[in-house]
Amino acid sequence: MTTKRLVSLEACLLFGLGAVFVLPKQIEMQPAAISLDLPAQVGHWTGVDQPVSEGERAILGPDTQFARRIYKNSAGDEIYASVVLSGPDMNTSIHRPERCLPAQGWTITESKRAVLPASDGSLNATRLHNVRNLRVGNNSFTIHSIDYYWFVGHSDMTPSHLRRTWIDIRDRVVRGQNQQWAYVTIAATVTKGVKVAGRDESETDELIRDFIRDFVPAVQGKALARN
What we know:
This protein has six helices and twelve strands. The protein is α+β, with helices and mostly antiparallel strands. It has one domain (28-226).
């Protein structure tokens, strides 16, 4: 290694170490740009509040906040909408559905990025296809569900848990900031074969996408940077 390169490396190292000392000791959390007041009506869907289990509260941080509703339309379709708002400890107060769905008996068979219609253009989300076996008496059923999720911060929005983690590191080290994050999930069960006149996966997916287009403007108060 040449002397010039060695000096440059030492300079970078000293700058990095120095940055640790100049960072503010107390980083104020910037609130997430989302409301926990979920609307009672979303288009032609009517929502009813849903309880949060004690088990879920015990797993997540004590400052975690929740809002969730089951929305129904006149045809009897149901869509589950949930917002989980983090507290100061990001390690315990927010997580991906890939962590909690298997514990609930679901197997995730597909995970991919999706672009959804939104009032201000488009919304990037992660789309999960899940299955679980359900036994009723002597009959066994395979249930399918579609789940879309994304993360909303103070000034950023992303469908990726890893990207959200990178943004947190960037904000703390470079900007001396700390964004509060919310995890939004919208899901519905594929009802074809489960109930009379049930909807197949494509029809269920279309229902969710149309719902999200009307739901997002009601809870996310401003346009955010897409990541």
